[in-house]
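assembly run, all chains below
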Amino acid sequence: MADPTNRQSEFRIRIFSAVAFLAVWQVGAELADTRMLPDPWQVVRAIVDHLANGELLYHAGVTLLRVGVSFFVAMAFGTALGMVMGSNRRWDAALDGVLVLALNIPALVVIILCYLWFGLGEFAAILAVAINKFPIVVVTMREGARAVDGDLLQVGRAFRIEPQRTFFRIYLPQLYPYLLASARSGLALVWKIVLVVELLGRSDGVGFKLGVYFQFFDIASILAYSFTFIAVVMAIEMLILAPLDRRLSEWRT
Amino acid sequence: MSALDIKITRKSYPRPGQAPLAVLTDLHFKVEEGEFVSVVGPSGCGKTTLLNLIGGLDGDVEGSVLVNGVAPEDGPMTGHMFQTPRLMPWLTVRDNIRLVEKDAASSGHRVEELLTEMGLADFADAYPAHLSGGMRRRVALARAFLNEPGLLLLDEPFLSLDAPVANHLRRVLLELCGRRSSTVLFVTHDLREALYLADRVLFMSGGPGSIVLDLPVDLPRPRQPESEAVERMRINLLKDHPQLLAGLVEKKGS
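ok done. output:
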């Protein structure tokens, strides 16, 4: 149970495990004594340096923008198609095969094909990421649409509630858990794929910079960029998704 | 023009690989404006199907279903109370009632009134999961009443409630109907409840359902649910037609 003493001790355990991780890293780096494994302090210094010359913020911003756009494109289209397939058997039968195919195309293949077909541009980059995320959203939202309670929708018809209100107050709330699950798993997936897309075909963004530092064997900078972006994604989870989840599932408590 | 004019030749549901299942056949009746009519029949006789047809939830029927002379979808505002409360679990009690409102400005006051009448004022901001079964039904009843509909369709609304709660809700229902003089179709398989509430009781046969007896209830109002008069009428009725609740009526003289 979540009584205060337990929560406090849980918090202590979390702090302890974080400190232990840093300690093991520090000791390991000192023992190895090589450029291949910088110690935590070197990584912090690299973060500060890259922040100071403005590069880190710029490239992280570019990457975040790509993550945002491709995330919303994939969520919007995936949710719409998932709803259609989940509520209409014919559409489901017609598109299920393509969906399985789409789920199983390797991310790398999609990225390469997009770049070949649409050129090494922003459109191809965003499209490649969105296509990778899209089928997973469809599958989750289809599951949600299948689970929608027809009895509750009947209330909308019985009282002649306008379609728009029925959609937002009766239908969509039933899909919130599925939307949130999609958003959470999607965010984690999308930003990783964005990095690959940037590495292969863009000249800015975190992925591009990682490629540059890879060529210089600059591991401290690679870790600096990675940790910065991990922090950004964690912030999105804690500041946007978690509060949204709490708000939308308030009625369950 | 009657509030309800039902001439159903046949209503059936398709079954994969089998002949369609007939649920209603040759079902004819009329209900006048402001009349409170109970429908009593054995399980599976198509009572809920009948309400769905009248409520415009299902239009697939041979025959005609007219509400105030027009098809249900074009008819007047209907209040519907289902067998289960069917509240939206993510909306508070107040928002559940307001869900069906047609005009936010005029019904805001009415919502608060209904909440008080139903004894829900203290729970207006609670979610349905935190309410008892009886309270959920009261919310559903309030929702059915919000727009003061000319036609109320109630499908065993007080099933499985304990007697005091059910009687309280029956009184609330009668009071609200009296004020608005709504036409009511009240499905139940509790004969005592039907006789206590209704101006007229329609008895249905077992499936496929049709009307086997159309009985006016000429007991004076106000009635008491446990009153002698209701009970006497019930006993006499069952003496004349021992199989009535199973949907069978003996022909007189046979």
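The mean pLDDT of chain A is 92.

Chain A touches chain B at residues 151-152, 154-155, 157-161, 165, 169-170, 173, 176, 248, 250-252 (CB under 8 Å).

not gonna interpret more than that til we talk
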